[in-house]
Amino acid sequence: MKPETRNRLIALGAILVAGGALAWIAFGNIGENLVYYWKPSEMVAQGDKAYGATVRLGGVVVPGSVVFNADRTALTFKVADTHAADAVKVTVKSEQTPPQMFREGIGVVVEGAFQADQVFRTNRLMVNHSNEYRAPTDGGMPTEAWKQSITQAD
């Protein structure tokens, strides 16, 4: 066999082995590692299929729904698609300390599982916030600047 033919066969074999390894890594058990993102209305529409699957639920914290337990180790709140009164709402329970920016009316993404009792139990709570800085108005207190940014965003 000529050296050029032998080198080409070795190169072809190496490419096939590398391609096979890449395909195995990319497609092997990938379904077990996917986390889907749903809005509350999409999750409720799935019915029984939504129970138990690890998903990310995104929406807005419903005003008046945030409740801490007596020793502040657990948090319950509702998440809706929008601020509308008739929006689909899902109850969320978390035993995680919420981020400092967590409050009513803010966008959140929670990762966990929807249970048959219609409660979404989360092990990860993330808030959605703007990266824009707004200085307090003249005479305003810096600690109250976040309230100004909410009213300006709405």
Fold and architecture overview:
The chain has 154 residues and is of the alpha+beta class. The chain has two domains: 32 residues; 119 residues, OB fold (Dihydrolipoamide Acetyltransferase, E2P). Helices cover 27% and strands 28% of the residues. It is built from three helices and seven strands, in the order H-E-H-E-E-E-E-E-E-H. A five-stranded mixed β-barrel has the order 2-4-5-7-6. It is elongated and about 85 Å long.
Low-confidence stretches: 148-154
Q: Domains counted in the coordinates: how many?
A: 2
Largest sheet: 5 strands, mixed, barrel
CATH C-level name of the largest domain: Mainly Beta
N→C terminal distance: 75 Å
User: Mean pLDDT, rounded to whole units?
Assistant: 82
**CATH topology grouping of the largest domain:** OB fold (Dihydrolipoamide Acetyltransferase, E2P)
Structural class: alpha+beta
Using only CA atoms, what is the Rg?
24 Å
Strand-residue fraction?
Answer: 25-35%
Strand order of the largest sheet: 2-4-5-7-6
The succession of helices and strands, N to C, reads HEHEEEEEEH
The appropriate CATH architecture of the largest domain is Beta Barrel
Q: Let me know the number of strands.
A: 7
Number of helices: 3
Rough outline = elongated
Secondary structure: helix percent: 25-40%
